[in-house]
Specification:
Layout (H helix, E strand, L loop, with lengths): L7 H17 L1 H7 L7 H19 L5 H18 L8 H12 L8 H10 L8 H25 L8 H21 L1 H6 L7 H5 L4 H6 L5 H18 L10 H24 L12 H19 L54 E5 L3 H7 L4 H22 L3 E8 L7 H17 L7 E6 L7 H13 L6 E9 L1 H17 L10 H6 L11 E4 L18 E4 L9 H12 L16
Parallel strand pairs: 1-2, 1-5, 2-4, 3-4, 5-6
Helix pairs in contact: 1-2, 1-3, 1-5, 2-13, 3-4, 3-5, 3-6, 3-7, 4-6, 6-7, 7-8, 8-12, 8-13, 12-13, 13-14, 15-16, 16-17, 16-21, 17-18
The chain binds 3-methylbut-3-enyl trihydrogen diphosphate (IPE) (2 copies) and magnesium ion (MG).
Length: 584
């Protein structure tokens, strides 16, 4: 049975994407050949789109401002076209169709796409950390789309948390190998996408590269960098426990990257003049057995293929709300349903940090004869309300106790329901258009990996927002936080960086999992209980406490406003005899 779309223009669009992938990146094309045929068009579309955008940003026949404008126009057009499912541009046509068919959330690519526009002004990095952030911001979201497709096809590539760092480092290796491979082309246009930290280790190398002079410093730099890239792409743990289909693709990718790095090293001075490529026989030696292994691996799992959409002329449901790809103009939160307006609280009196123990979901459900999970669902609505209320009064930090380390002791059914609801909320991303920076605070390694993935994605894509910092405490326990901090301090002592007799409060605070989280000024618990249940013991040491009888699902933003107003009437002494000795 053919899996081709009925629309001839769309078929041609996908063919174009395949041809471009094949001619511009044969290694990528060969890797895509290792996945089952029905998945390939979507991967060609993603690859061709990422590259079309890069090419627009990189086309040096135009000045930087012009290139930036072209990238912007491409992104804006994409977002306009997404809900329509079609585009006059064949690559975007294939991409919007892929997004609709596989239910991809392309807004996750927003920052990666915006980066291409920003890069038209040139890039420099002081150190590896800055370089890594840049590379990961670009690559991770695109790889995330590929993983989403595999997920929808029934072959999830959920990464265990302990392999996440290996995965991200692997992608650092992909990026560094690319940069080494493209060195001659980049230098020809005056670009050098390496951190100053790496160049400084080989004095003179930056100048020599700028003048395209092969010197001992440059040679040593290349040896250093290829060694680093080899270490990054050699991630044995990465594919452990993974479905053999994607595992084969990743292992083959690593082998091709190693071959590419061999070619970089063997090139010597020619590296500054042309793109090195491994010999054809080397590639065949890697790819031929991989094809056999891949065919066998994929045959183990039947794939779920979503149907093709109707002809593009027919009206469709929007796949995702159209919104500008790069605009940073945030929406205002919707008003309180009653029209109630927020109290005007002078910023100096506002608590900097409100933390909430959202208690009473279970009792709310029981009172209505409903299962407990109905209470948690209603509680999710209250979260939205309170976040809107926090934005309206200009709160800087709101931290919500969402799932405690002790909550694992509840029935599996309830735990699954809570985590499932959380997953749905984070996936739906109700705060995406608001100025909310989202963070996750809690233990890594025990949450379902796809939920952890989503939380980290939200954290990454909202990192630059400056409105409200919303910290979700999930699998959070105060004792766990303190214990991990103590372990971090112990490691510093063992390494000889810290004297145990001189450890101060500040040292401790600097080793907390979120060292930038301010002290809690106001700790509010709903649900008529007067305890803190292992919540933020370090940060809430001097918090004002506020307990309210109502159950969390009955909470709305005016309860937050009441709590904050009550706080403004408290006298804080912090151990002295003067009220408010500390600036708020
Ligand atoms: C708080 O509500 C939510 C979580 C702990 C996840 P509860 O589920 O504790 O509700 P009650 O206290 O049983 O009413
Ligand atoms: C605290 O509520 C945890 C969260 C709100 C996530 P609990 O309902 O679990 O607390 P206890 O058990 O009553 O102390
Ligand atoms: Mg409770």
């Amino acid at each position: 049975m053919s899996d081709a779309p009925a629309d001839p223009a769309l078929r041609a669009a996908y063919r174009l994407c395949r041809r471009r992938t094949k001619s511009e990146d044969p290694a990528e094309y060969a890797l895509i050949q290792l996945v089952p045929a029905p998945l390939r068009p979507a991967l060609h579309a993603l690859w061709a789109a990422a590259n079309a955008l890069d090419d627009l940003g990189d086309d040096r026949t135009a000045p930087a401002a012009e290139r930036a404008a072209r990238v912007e126009a491409w992104i804006t057009a994409l977002h306009r076209e997404l809900p329509t499912g079609t585009s006059p541009d064949p690559i975007r046509h294939a991409l919007v169709d892929t997004a609709a068919r596989w239910r991809l959330d392309l807004s996750e690519l927003r920052d990666a796409m915006a980066q291409v526009r920003e890069d038209t002004d040139g890039r420099s990095f002081t150190d590896w950390a800055a370089w890594r952030t840049w590379g990961r911001d670009n690559l991770l979201p695109w790889f995330g789309q590929v993983r989403a497709i595999l997920d929808r096809a029934g072959v999830p590539v959920a990464l265990r948390l302990d392999t996440r760092e290996a995965y991200e480092e692997f992608l650092d290796g992909v990026r560094l190998t690319d940069i080494l491979t493209d060195l001659s082309a980049d230098l020809a246009q005056g670009d050098l996408l390496l951190p100053e930290e790496a160049l400084a280790l080989h004095p003179g190398s930056a100048d020599d590269l700028a003048n395209r002079r092969w010197s001992p410093a440059v040679s040593a730099l290349v040896t250093d960098l290829t060694g680093r890239a080899r270490r990054w792409v050699a991630q044995e743990t990465l594919t452990r426990g993974m479905h053999p289909g994607p595992a084969t693709v990743l292992q083959t990718m690593a082998a091709l990257l190693h071959a590419q790095l061999d070619a970089v090293e063997a090139a010597g001075p020619a590296l500054l003049r042309a793109r090195p490529r491994p010999a054809l026989r080397t590639r065949v030696r890697i790819l031929a057995p991989a094809r056999t292994r891949a065919a066998l691996a994929w045959s183990l799992t039947p794939l779920t293929l979503p149907p093709h959409h109707r002809s593009p002329d027919a009206p469709r449901q929007p796949a995702a709300p159209a919104r500008p790809a790069t605009a940073r103009a945030f929406r205002r939160p919707p008003p309180h349903p009653s029209g109630e307006r927020p109290p005007v609280i002078p910023p100096a009196l506002l608590p900097a940090h409100v933390a909430v123990i959202m208690d009473g979901n279970g009792r709310w459900a029981q009172q209505r004869g409903l299962p407990r999970h109905a209470g948690h669902r209603a509680g999710a609505h209250a979260v939205r309300e309170v976040v809107h209320g926090a934005l309206e009064i200009g709160l800087a930090h709101l931290t919500l106790y969402t799932f405690s380390t002790e909550n694992w002791h509840r029935d599996t059914e309830e735990v699954d329901a809570i985590l499932g609801l959380l997953r749905d909320e984070v996936a739906e991303d109700p705060f995406r258009d608001l100025d909310v920076r989202m963070r996750w605070h809690g233990r890594a390694g025990r949450l379902p990996p796809d939920l952890a993935d989503l939380l980290q994605l939200r954290e990454r894509t909202t990192r630059g927002r400056t409105g409200l910092t919303l910290t979700m405490c999930i699998d959070y326990g105060g004792r766990d936080e303190i214990t991990r901090t103590a372990a971090a301090l112990a490691r510093r002592v063992r390494a000889g960086h810290l004297d145990p007799d001189r450890i101060t409060d500040e040292d401790f605070a600097r080793h907390l999992p979120h060292p930038d989280m301010p002290d809690v000024d106001l700790l509010w618990r709903t649900g008529n209980e007067q305890r803190t249940s292992n919540f933020l013991p370090w940060h809430a040491a001097y918090a004002e406490l506020h307990f309210t009888p109502g159950l969390w699902p009955d909470t709305d933003r005016h309860h937050l406003w009441e709590a904050v107003t009550a706080y403004t009437h408290r006298q804080r002494r912090h151990g002295t005899t003067n009220p408010d000795p500390l600036p708020r």
